[in-house]
Amino acid sequence: MAQILAPTSQWRMKVTRSSATASPMTAKMWGSLVLKQNKKGPARSSTKFRVLATKSEGYTINRLEGLLNLDLTPFTDKIIAEYIWIGGSGVDVRSKSRTISKPVEDPSELPKWNYDGSSTGQAPGEDSEVILYPQAIFKDPFRGGNNILVICDAYTPQGEPIPTNKRARAAEIFKNKKVIDEVPWYGIEQEYTLLQTDVKWPLGWPIGGYPGPQGPYYCGAGADKSFGRDISDAHYKACLYAGINISGTNGEVMPGQWEYQVGPSVGIEAGDHIWASRYILERITEQAGVVLTLDPKPIEGDWNGAGCHTNYSTKSMREDGGFEVIKKAILNLSLRHVEHISAYGEGNERRLTGKHETASINTFSWGVANRGCSIRVGRETEKQGKGYLEDRRPASNMDPYIVTSLLAETTLLWEPTLEAEALAAQKLALNV
């Protein structure tokens, strides 16, 4: 992100009643259902069931699609809540639906639920029940109306967070008074790659072959440079509809790769928004017949990897004299480089090679306007003497709850020894 702006007032995720005229992202928009129609009557099918069709204003509307797009608000107060959680790999998103008796405005109004953790790699078969705790609500861009997406975290029946529940630990850090007083802002740049379904090769690439070298694809336009723009744009609008604080999108350096930015968001909200946006992207690529991957280096060789650069600032960094606070934060980050790298995404060593706008995974560095460093500080931040830093180390598959809370912990709560601080300051001075 170019800069961190003032955050929204969304301190707690809420949903207001949407009007009956609110229009969801329909199946027709995605083009997910194409059936040949008989001009003289009902559609014919070689299977045992038939899909009827009617004529309306000069075009044929499929009955199944009509049911998918039904607006329920004039007929019932009941809504559909899609409960979403993170699966056993720590990257996959899972979800299931339930009926709620009336529209809700806060997660506390929703019941807890459970799922079979033995089927997601999160519990043994003999004791497989895992409990979902609703934590954040977003409008559902697929069903529309008052229907909602619900970001949940997972607990044992005894109320203990399961190992893959990283939100619980993050929430503890963000509830610390020192952290609250510093109002940490995050702007997260989520990169992702689109793959062809059957061959798992990037979208737009010749099967088994390669496109021209990198150069014309970044923020490019044209059929020979941009592959998957409809998916990126559909995702952009769906996120805005949902209430996700998405702030932009662009084509990336490697063809078939895209990026969107979420933020600025305050505290735990950053992780909730990223996970909700990932779920929506998975649903859109599902309907488009394209595979989404968050692999940090989907194609080996002279091609850019995929990161999740995290822009970060505190109240003290944004005030006069903030550049010195930023330097102190960078010093702390240098001393915990190994801890951060170990938590910044699986397979990140294939991406952080010192090439393709990355720093080496084994070396901590920082610089002004240098995209080959671990931490980049913008020219404007240096000029104004305040602003934010960009942590360029996180991989595209990182857990945003871990990364955001770890940044807050290292820069606001963790105190190095005087000896370690002095040694790190000397090394950083040589680095700059």
What does this structure look like?
Helix content is 27%, strand content 21%. With 432 residues, the chain is α+β, with helices and mostly antiparallel strands. Among the domains are: 42 residues, no CATH class; 258 residues, Creatine Kinase, Chain A, domain 2. Strands 8, 9, 10, 11, 12, 13, 14 and 15 form an 8-stranded mixed β-sheet that branches. It has a 5-stranded mixed β-sheet with strand order 4-3-7-6-5, covered by helices on one side. A hairpin with a 6-residue loop joins strand 3 and strand 4. The longest helix has 20 residues. The radius of gyration is 23 Å and the shape is globular.
Please mark out the parts with pLDDT under 50 across 5 or more consecutive residues, or reply none: 1-5, 8-22, 27-55
CATH superfamily of the domain at 174-431: Glutamine synthetase/guanido kinase, catalytic domain
Give the name of the CATH architecture of the domain at 174-431. Answer: 2-Layer Sandwich
**pLDDT averaged over residues:** 88
Q: CATH topology of the domain at 174-431, what is it called? A: Creatine Kinase, Chain A, domain 2
Radius of gyration: 23 Å
CATH first level of the domain at 174-431: which class?
Alpha Beta
Spell out the helices and strands N to C: HEEHEEEEEHHEHEEHEEHHHEEHEHH
Separation of the first and last Cα atoms: 23 Å
Strand-pairing-aware structural class: alpha+beta
Number of helices: 12
Helix content: 25-40%
Number of strands: 15
* Sheet with most strands: 8 strands, mixed
Q: Using the alpha-carbon principal axes, give the shape.
A: globular
Tell me the fraction of residues in β-strands, as a range. Answer: 15-25%
